Prior knowledge:
Blueprint: H1 9-13, H2 31-34, E1 47-59, E2 64-75, E3 79-85, E4 92-97, E5 100-101, E6 107-108, E7 113-122, E8 127-136, E9 149-154, E10 160-165, E11 187-195, E12 205-211, E13 216-224, E14 234-235, E15 239-246, E16 252-259, H3 264-271, H4 274-284, E17 295-299, E18 304-305, E19 311-313, H5 326-333, E20 341-343, H6 350-368, H7 370-381, H8 398-402, H9 411-427, H10 429-441, E21 454-456, H11 458-469, H12 474-480, E22 488-494, E23 497-503, E24 514-518, E25 521-525, E26 531-535, E27 543-545, H13 556-570
Parallel strand pairs: 1-11, 16-17, 17-19, 20-21
Antiparallel strand pairs: 1-2, 2-8, 3-7, 4-5, 4-8, 6-7, 9-10, 10-14, 11-13, 12-13, 15-16, 18-19, 22-23, 23-26, 24-25, 24-27
Helix pairs in contact: 5-6, 6-7, 6-9, 9-10, 10-11
Amino acid sequence: MLRFPLPPLALIAALASPALAAEPGQPPLTERTAETGLPLTPEQQSVDFTHADLSWRIDPETQSITGDATLTLKVEKPIRTIQFDLDRNLPVSAIDVDGKPRPASAWNNPEGQLTIRLPRNYRAGEELKLRIRYAGTPHVAVRAPWDGGFVWSETPGGAPWIATAVQGEGCDLFWPCFDSSEIEIDTVDLHITVPQGLAAPSNGRFIGKQDNADGTVTWNWRAQHPNNYAIALNIAPYESIGADYRSRFGNVIPMTYWFLPGEEAQAKELFSEFAPTLDFFESTIGPYPFGDEKMGVVETPHLGMEHQTINAYGNGYKKSAEGYDWLFHHEFSHEWFGNQLTNENWDDMWLHEGLGSYMQPLYLRWRGGEMPYMAALAKQRAQIKNRFPLVSGQPRTEDQVYNDADGPGLDIYVKGSWVAHSLRELIGDEAFFRTLRREVYGRPDPAPGNFEPRFGSSTEFQRIASEEAGRDLGWFFDIYLRRAELPKLVTSRNGTTLELVWQTPDDLPFPMPVEIWADGTPLTVDMEDNRGSVELPSPDAHVVLDPHAKILRQSDDIDAFHAWQAAQVAE
C-alpha cells in the first residue's frame, strides 16, 4: 500500500537527537504558520484538490517525523506556480512534478508558504500531481488542543503516547496542505509507520497494516472529504473494543474505541455510550455521515478534538451527575456540525460550536426530560459574555474567532447554543429540526448514500430557518448573531396594565413574543414594534417574565454575577 520506500530510523535520528527534543512551543512558528484560515492564493483558487496520499514515519525517541506527500490537483484556471502551506521547521528535501524531479531552485519556503515553480504552464482541465518529501522536528503543542501541534507523551507504563491536534494552527504543522476551512479534499490516503508494538488509528476506513523488515509497522487508512484540521495522528500501544451498530436507517456502522492498556473496565463503560448517542443523533438530526467508514474514538493525552471518524477523547472517564460523558458527546456532535457541515469561513464557527454545544442539553432532554435540559442550559447561560458579536460579517481567521480578546471566544459555544434554543422555542420543533437537517445535509430527507459533506454559512442558515418558519427571521439573526448586546426586556405598570418594551442595540426591530405568569396564570404578549401590553388580574399581581426561559435576553442577575467574578480576579 505504501507509495515509497521508507528510510531507516537512523536517518530520522540524524535530524534530531533526544537531547535536542523540542520543548512545548518549540520549534517556533512563523506568523503565517501560526494562523489558519488565511485567504487562498490565486493559484490555490485555480485548482481542485482531489487527492492526497500522505505517509509519515514517526520516531518517538527523537520526536521527529519524515513525510512523503503525493498531492493530486485538477487545474481549473491556467497556472505556472502553486503554493502549499507547510511549516518551515519541516524542510523539503525533494519535489517531483508529474513524476519528474524539480531542482531545489524551483521551490522556496521562507515563511511557511511553500511556493513551487512548475516546469511549464498548466492549462484548465489538466491534472497536476506533486510529490513532496520533507522531514524534521514538528512544533510541539504548549497546551493541546487549545494550542496546536504534536503531543509527545508517555502512557502510565512508559510507552510512547503521541497525538496531533492542530485546529488552531492548521494542517500545515505536519503536512503540505491548503490551510483553509474552504478546502476538503475528495480522498485522503494515510500511511503511518511506527515502531512495532504501537498502533496508529486514524481517519476513515482501515485498509490494513504491514510489518516492515526494520522493526516498524505501517497502518493504512482512507478517508473521504475530511476537514484539513481533522486529519490526525494517534500513536500508542492501544487496545480496542468494537461492535457493529444497526442504524435506524438500515445500514450497519462499525464502532471502535482505542484505549490504553489496563483501562478495559472504564473503556467498556464509555463504549456503552456509543450506541445510544448514535441513536440520539440519528433520530434528532439524521444519518451518521460516515457510516461507510466508522464511528471511531481514541484516547489521547489532550482533552479532545473532532477528528473526523477518530474523535480524540481525553476526559479521563470522569463521572457526571447527568449520567453521560459530556466531552465524548460534544466531540462526537462535530461529526454533524463541523465534519459533515463545515463553515465556509471561521466567522461562521458558531455553526460548529454553538449547534454542537446545543446537542448536549438536547441529549439530556432526550434521555431524561425537561429538568436536565434546562439545568444544562442554565449552566451555559451563566457563561455568556456578549463582548463581541458571534458573526462579524467579514472573513476571519481561527484566532480572531476563538480569542476572546477581540472575538466572541467562548460565546460561539454557549451563546450559540442559546441562539439555537431560542430559535427552537420561536419556530417550533418541526421547523427547527427541518432547518438543521437542511443545513447539515443540504436536503430535508437525508438517507445513507444521498448526501456528501458540505459547506454552510450563517446567511444560509438564516434563509433556511425563515423558509421553514414561513416568515422572515432576519430580525432574530440580526440581534443574536450580528450584535453583541442582548435585547433587554423593560416593564412598567399602570394600574392593571403591564407594559413591555424590548430595548435593542441601534433600536433594531425585535418582535419576539413574551410569555408571562400573572399570579400563576400563563399569558402571552405580542411585541410588534418592540412593544406590547397585557391586563393583569390585579394591580399587585405577581409577574414572572419568560417563566420557561425560552428567550435569550439581558439579565441583571447574570450581569451582577459577571461583575463579581471580575472583581474576584482583580483582587
